[in-house]
Amino acid sequence: MTAVALRAEGLSRRFGETLALREVTLEVRQREVVGVVGENGAGKSTLLKLLAGAIAPDAGQISVRGAAVRWREIRDAADAGIGVMFQEPSLVPGVSVAENILLGHEGPAVRFGIIRWRKLFALAKVSLAKLGIKISPAAVTHSLSFSERQLVAFARALAVEARTREAPIILLDEPTSALDDRDIAAVLRAVEELRMRASVVFVSHRLEEVLRVCDRIYVMKDGQCVAECDARTSTVDALQRLMVGHAMGTDVTREVAASHVEGTVCLEVRQLGRRDEYADVTLAFRYGEVLGLAGAAGSGCEELCRTLFGIDAPQSGTMLLDGQVVTLRDPSDAVGRAIVYVPAERASEGVIGEMSVAANMTLAYLAQFCGRWAIDTRREWDVAELWIRQLRIATPSATARVSDLSGGNQQKVALAKWLVGERPRMLILDHPARGLDVLARRDILAAVRELARDGVCIVILADTLDDLLAVSDTVIVMRDGRISARYSVAGDRPTQQLILEGMV
Amino acid sequence: MAPFTVLIALVLGIGAVVPSFLSAYSLGVLADAASVILLLAIGQTLIVVMGGIDLSMAALASLTSVIVALLLPELGAGAVLGALCVAALIGALQGLVHARAQIPSFVVTLAGLGICSGIALAIAKTTVPVAEHYEVVGWLDARSWGVPHAFAFGVTLLALFQVALGCLRFGRYLYAIGMAERVALLSGIRVWRVKTLAFGASGLCSGLAGVCMVARTSSGNPTIADSLLLPSIAAVLVGGTAITGGHGSLARTLLGVCIVAVMRVAVAVAGIAPAYEPIAYGALVIIAVAFTVDRSSIGIVK
């Protein structure tokens, strides 16, 4: 047996009312890939943050290569050769990719305090090449899409290799969650290669991936480590049973809506365009229909959704709402017309972490929760309780702070925000299941289908092609800002292969 | 609780050295001196909770005092109403520019400070005595049962705004914008309206502070309130309202105003010349922020 690279013993951590981690013990050996799986809120991300020195444990001990450590900040962990990629990519938007990758460990790229750009770009290129990705080190980070930034964050985690003489320890929190299949393959290949020279902790919801790439797997549930499995002998079913405590049926959100009747047109866009984003988009969104948008990063899907919600105005083309020409100047215009949007980046756009669950849910339709003057908190709490039950949100109470909830439950709060008022006319969802576990994902997608049955017009940018085909009635594929294919799922159900071909 | 402890300690400390400090009369004098700072701090609290700052308040109060003093003889009560409207409009205009042109409130109100001072100096080179109709504002300078009217007025206004912050949509929106403006925007809140309204309210508070100044000195002066900017901001922060937005209340501000007022006395009791008072306020601001910044999460501070 090889030596232990990283060991955590009895780690506990509390956030407000929630005990996020309870006496977790875990061990990573040299040149080993260890998987950590569990539902949302099981404590995976918290565990990783503790191991990376981003937060301090309330109790427990971490040791690296046999020596006990106590970190005050991430930099201390980086000095010990621990590189980390968090679930929400934390990059500086306004600077180049190379600066982000080497931020804090510029090393040879800085001489006498002056950056040697050529050297910096060369070093960054090495990190990017390890992942086999084609992103220019000189590109400005905010011009990248979410998935490209995810890859840059991965490259950044690998940059500690240059910093330590020991074999590095790389911690990856959902490295594949926002990626399309091609990029996922690149990431998994990179993890395989890392096994030759490093130790890896790999957190993912995609159990097939975990089984494929890991040697050992820890299963977490309710903040505890409930099982440790050998990846060679374990199966997806066995892991799922351990994660949720019971067997799961097949993960299908619905019987394909073969009986689907075409609804009337809710929103129609004609020759819609925005420079460098999308062009010549002509589409009809119908009541009671789930329209799934598929496209790789930079295909214009996300940008189109933001235009439909009034965030970025189109530069050409027209929009018709119920047959009338409409201009959406800002999101409040859209909300006023019952067009609502669940953003992909829930932490910075979806919910207010410091506010209570109830206050988040009522934020958009607060007027409906007011008496003549004041907010009726009784009514507010009643409605919050109702939606906590409806969407099965795991929270200690309606008054708990949203930041104390797990990602999946936060996302449910972000969705509930649009359900507490009058039924929306059109619901736009940008990667609603990003980083969510099987159960939470199923809950969200089921809620989406339910809304469509009630006649809501739904636009969804799904996280995986599985989700896309499971939930959509119509699939629109985009590539380079233009529509490249249209399918009706009920009629000519497209294969994943076919959709992928339209995307790349 | 910390600000409360500080206040008690200060009061008892001064009381031990100068027993007459705790008499009703000298507390009345203290309240009188604090009333203008209180009015300014009320407006400032709304803006700070929203995550902004209003540096123009004291200059706007000075400008209002000049307008009131100039127009009182001709218009009487109309002068006061008119001047308050002007102050509220100037405040709202700053909020509108800040929100619509996406310019930080710090910059807009710093410019506003300059503009208000400039206008005040342009229309009145120096002190303008109130020639007639002083009685319209004079009641503010009087007392009932030893309580200065201006202070009682300020506390009433504070209570009203506290209810607005805690119970009205406007208050919820202020906190939401202070905590996460982007989420507020994407929830369909018309952020620019809330900001305009909040800055309008802070302009109104500045105007009321200016009116109180006229009542106290029976004159208007283009720089009369200027030195009160620092103490009023100090009062908000020392009460425990976070400069980063989203956290705080007017109850805390009332506590902060009391601390600042008592501090003035403490400085005098310690035998320090009043000219050095701003040093104490400056130190107070830094200490207050040091105690109220939330360091539980890894924070970035600019």
Task: Please characterize this protein's 3D structure.
The complex is a heterodimer of chains A (504) and B (302). With 504 residues, chain A is α/β, with parallel strands linked by helices. Chain A folds into three domains: 4-244, P-loop containing nucleotide triphosphate hydrolases (Rossmann fold); 253-338 and 423-504, P-loop containing nucleotide triphosphate hydrolases (Rossmann fold); 349-422, no CATH class. Chain A has 17 helices and 22 strands. Chain A has helices at 44-52, 74-79, 97-102, 117-130, 146-158, 181-194, 207-213, 236-244, 301-308, 331-336, 346-350, 357-362, 377-390, 407-416, 438-453, 465-471, 496-503; strands at residues 4-15, 18-29, 33-38, 59-64, 67-69, 82-85, 110-111, 114-115, 169-173, 199-203, 216-221, 224-230, 265-274, 278-286, 290-295, 316-321, 324-325, 339-342, 426-430, 457-461, 474-479, 482-488. Chain A has a six-stranded mixed beta sheet with strand order 6-9-10-3-11-12, with helices on both faces. In chain A, strands 18-19-20-15-21-22 form a six-stranded mixed beta sheet, with helices on both faces. The longest helix of chain A has 16 residues, at 438-453. Chain A is globular, with a radius of gyration of 23 Å. Chain A starts with a strand and ends with a helix. Residues 247-259 of chain A have low confidence and may be disordered. The two termini of chain B are 27 Å apart. Chain B has a single domain, classed as Orthogonal Bundle (ABC transporter involved in vitamin B12 uptake, BtuC). The model of chain B has no long low-confidence stretch (mean pLDDT 87). Chain B has helices spanning 2-17, 24-49, 57-75, 77-100, 105-123, 135-138, 149-167, 169-179, 181-186, 191-217, 229-238, 250-269, 277-292, and strands at 128-129, 143-144, 147-148, 219-220. A two-stranded antiparallel sheet of chain B has the order 1-4. In chain B, strands 2-3 form a two-stranded antiparallel ribbon. The longest helix of chain B has 27 residues, at 191-217. Chain B contains 13 helices and four strands. Helices cover 72% and strands 3% of the residues of chain B. In chain B, 50% of the residues are buried. In chain B, strand 2 (143-144) and strand 3 (147-148) form a beta hairpin. Chain B has 302 residues and is mostly helical. The chains are: A alpha/beta (504), B mainly alpha (302).
